[in-house]
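Box 3.1 A note on notation
Throughout this textbook, protein chains are presented in two layers. The first layer is the amino acid sequence; the second is a token string describing backbone geometry. Keep the layers aligned when reading.
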Amino acid sequence: MKIVDVCAFYTPYGGGVRTYVEQKLRIGAALGHEIVIVAPGDEDAVIERGPAARIITLKNPRFPLDRKYWYFASAAQLHDTLDALAPDYVEATSPWRSAGLVADWQGSAPRSLIMHADPLSAYAYRWFGNVFSQRTIDWQFSVYWDHLRRHAARFDHVVCANPDLSRRLAEGGVPRTVSIPMGVQPGRFSPQNRDRALRAQLLADCDLPESASLLLGVGRLAAEKRWPLVIDAVNAASQERPIGLVVFGEGRERRVVVKHIAGNPHVRLFTPERNGDMFARILASADALIHGSEAETFCMAAAEARASGIPVIVPDEGGAADHASGGAGTTYAARDPAAAARAILTVLGRPAHQACHARTSTEHFAELFALYECSHAKRRRAA
């Protein structure tokens, strides 16, 4: 099949969406499909990634709230591009404006809405959850629910990366939800990457000896990631045992995070490690990964930690919680730093364990594209 991904939040500057896109281009072609990513950008361009994989950028304005991104400003521009590509299947990988644009396209190809974002958990529930119940917040944000239900009804599937999000959407009246978890890059993450010398160096960077415990945080420096909560939890747990925290991330909340660290030598903030093999070594060399966001649709960092043989300490809400199953870690009450501190001490008090099974990205795309092939076949029979 020719599969076109209308990817409103692709950026060459990195991030989870870019990682997912790169995996899709590589694995989709290997599975026998032609993959085309259509994304807004500074200029009209075609970036070839092989005989059956390419990225097409369409000249569009920068997104005013984050200049690393762009947005589709013209429905006609996008629809003309889809007409020219004549896809067998179309994906909209953002629930915002691009979902409506893809739904409005007059082509005959089946299409899916991919929920790479959970805006209510990332924003509304976080902003107002201490004051109102989730049901009340959903009512107050009924415009978003109406938007999602209206557009989702015009898609063949609404694909979620975790069953909790699928359940919430279905309960909210969003039709045809399906859970297809993502996966880690095959062959890269393993307990065999553990490097004692690297672990000792990271602890030394935290002004701690090798006998201390090393926690790792990975992700964007954004408010919904709750890095202040993570730092507070580590500081509280450090009253019981020496712990170093190393965070790899960048983003608009960097100043907030640095201010919250407040010069603590045992908490270090580094820019993301771009070398994949080096990052795999760092991940396997920590004693645990800690995560603060209850708004994850999947949480790739926790999945990679699971594959690397280190336990995860994650909130009990959202996609991150799935990666603690089967003895791979511990969950704590979301938004509660004291609960997170207790979870840290629980995990660090256990014997080290080996990797639990971690789903691979190849498994994810094989399942996803099988769903697409089934929909495509049904549409052809109906025609």
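Residues 361-382 form the longest helix (22 residues). The chain has a mean pLDDT of 91.
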